[in-house]
């Protein structure tokens, strides 16, 4: 069975100006590798020089832990999900047995 698979990659570093059209050779290299690996042409490719790193990615690049603000927000989001899951479980027919 075939399923849609999407590979992501972020490549960068501190560089000066890049020439106009600098996206094309990188896009072609990725599309060529995709075809070599899968035997198929990519149905789509999105790329560009405007990407950013997430806080956890930036922390890895800078060899540090993610910021406390990020950690607090992550725990708050996941605590809410856990609480909501527990709440649904407690009010479901399976939870009352």
Characterize this entry briefly.
Helices cover 48% and strands 0% of the residues. It contains 3 helices and no strands.
Structure in words:
- This protein is mainly α.
- 48% of the residues lie in helices and 0% in strands.
- The chain has helices at residues 23-38, 55-61, 68-91.
- The longest helix has 24 residues, at 68-91.
- The mean pLDDT is 86.
- Provide the β-strand percentage band: under 5%
Q: What is Rg?
A: 21 Å
Per the principal axes of the C-alpha atoms, what is the gross shape?
Answer: flat
Order of helical and strand elements:
HHH
> Average pLDDT, to the nearest integer?
86
Cα distance spanning the termini: 38 Å
Could you describe the largest sheet, including whether it forms a barrel?
Answer: none
Segments where pLDDT lies below 50 for 5+ residues?
none
Name the descriptors.
single chain; 97 residues; mainly alpha; 3 helices; 48% helix
List the helices and strands and how they pair.
Blueprint: H1 23-38, H2 55-61, H3 68-91
């Amino acid at each position: 069975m075939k399923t849609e698979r999407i590979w992501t990659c972020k490549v960068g570093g501190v560089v000066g100006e890049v020439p106009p059209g600098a996206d094309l050779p990188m896009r072609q290299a990725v599309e060529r590798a995709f075809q070599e690996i899968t035997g198929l042409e990519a149905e789509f490719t999105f790329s560009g020089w405007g990407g950013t790193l997430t806080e956890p990615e930036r922390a890895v690049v800078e060899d540090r832990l993610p910021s406390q603000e990020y950690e607090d927000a992550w725990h708050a989001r996941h605590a809410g999900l856990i609480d909501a899951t527990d709440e649904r479980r407690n009010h479901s027919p399976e939870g009352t047995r």
